[in-house]
Amino acid sequence: MIKKIFYAICIASFIINIQAQERTKMQELNSIISEIKNEYSKDKRTSIFELNVVRYDDLFSISGMTNLPDAKNELLKRANEKGIIITDKIELLPVQELGNKIYGIINLSVANFRTKPEHDQELSTQALLGTPIKVYKKDASGYLLVQTPDNYISFLDDDGFELMTKEEFDDWNKSKKIFYLEEYGFSYSEPDDNSERVSDLVIGNILKFVERIGEYIKVQYPDGRIAYVKTNECADYEEWLNELNITQESIISTAKKFMGIPYLWGGTSSKTMDCSGFTKMVYYLHGIILERDASLQVHTGDLVDTKNGFENLQPGDLMFFGSKSVERERITHVAIYIGDLEFIHASGRVRINSFDKNKENFSPYRLKQFIRAKRILTSIDKNGITTIRSNKFYRGEF
Q: pLDDT-based confidence at 161, cuts 50/70/90?
């Protein structure tokens, strides 16, 4: 009887020990995943690292998806070094089902992106006609998970862009193009503004140049549609890029063009815009690519010293607002500094407010919420700021 009890205790101790080892391995594996995520995927808006761990006895299966091959390889390497046996079920994006069609060009004047693959979901961002995108995965609903040049990841329906192979994308990228200059306009089915309209157009749209016909430019859309645009409403794309004159004055002049444009959460075009969509558009029209959200833009650019007031601010600087505590900082708004304590921003509509208590447009709310300022013009091609020329999406190197 004593022997049976002894053996039972030994077996129970053995099982408990094995279970403890398995729990330790699970904890180690979750710790490794957390470390990798912190190193490679700091924000789910700009990268994908969604993993699930399941344990089978002393084996572990990891499923999910990521668009970060280096992160996946590092995860498998660290797990192996810890002696943790893994069944790798991690899907590396883009998915194989897409084949070689993982590139796209926006096909609408303004394409709407959603936070989830449904028409009734929140508008997350917009992209302009001619914008290059990377395609990661197709949902059963017809929406695709895509990434834009500002690295933002969200869902776009298949009517919003033209899916392409690398060869088709490169052909588009290398072609002669035009850049639309008017805040709003149209393209036509014939070189006549009384002819049927092909689509609306907004400032920043890019189309393939075909030929000039009198006072019109014959253009081609990413999906092959042919249309005509008034010559005086557009510029040669390369000439526009080469002739950009980026100054504090030009930034403010461009910003003021959008005075009164209504605010829309997720908007980034001259039709409607949110606060960071406004700053993005202003800088995009100078060939500069900003991050999508204010809470992302705040991590780019050169810090401006505002500890003792606003005397160090210069026109064109981005001003960030929100709430701050010992535990957490939350950036919720961004504006562009004009000078003389005034700033322009999208709040209800694009408007100008001031920190000067003696002015009618003084905003005590924004003064109370101000957190910091960043200088963009000294950070071009560094500190998180890219240009159309250097951005990997526009270069076709993504």
A: very high
pLDDT bracket for residue 353 (50, 70, 90): very high
DSSP secondary structure letters along 278-329 = HHHHHHHTTTEE--SSHHHHTTSSEEE--TT-STT--TT-EEEEEEE-SS-E
Domain enclosing residue 135, as ranges: 97-172
- Which amino acid appears at position 171 of this protein? D
Statement to judge: residues 267 and 352 lie in one domain: yes
Same domain flag for 303 and 291: yes
How much is the pTM?
0.91
- The predicted model gives 140-144 an average pLDDT of 90
How far, in Å, CA of 7 to CA of 345, rounded? 76
- Distance in angstroms (rounded) separating the CA atoms of residues 89 and 92: 9
Give me the CATH number covering residue 302.
Answer: 3.90.1720.10
Q: Are 295 and 275 in contact (CB under 8 A)?
A: no
Residue 94: cis peptide before it, omega within 30 degrees of 0 = yes
Same structural domain for residues 225 and 362?
Answer: no
pLDDT of residue 398: 84
Q: Does residue 139 share a domain with residue 55?
A: no
Other C-beta atoms within 10 Å of 264: how many?
16
Of 156, 335, 173, whose CA–CA distance to 263 is shortest?
A: 335
Number of domains in the chain: 4
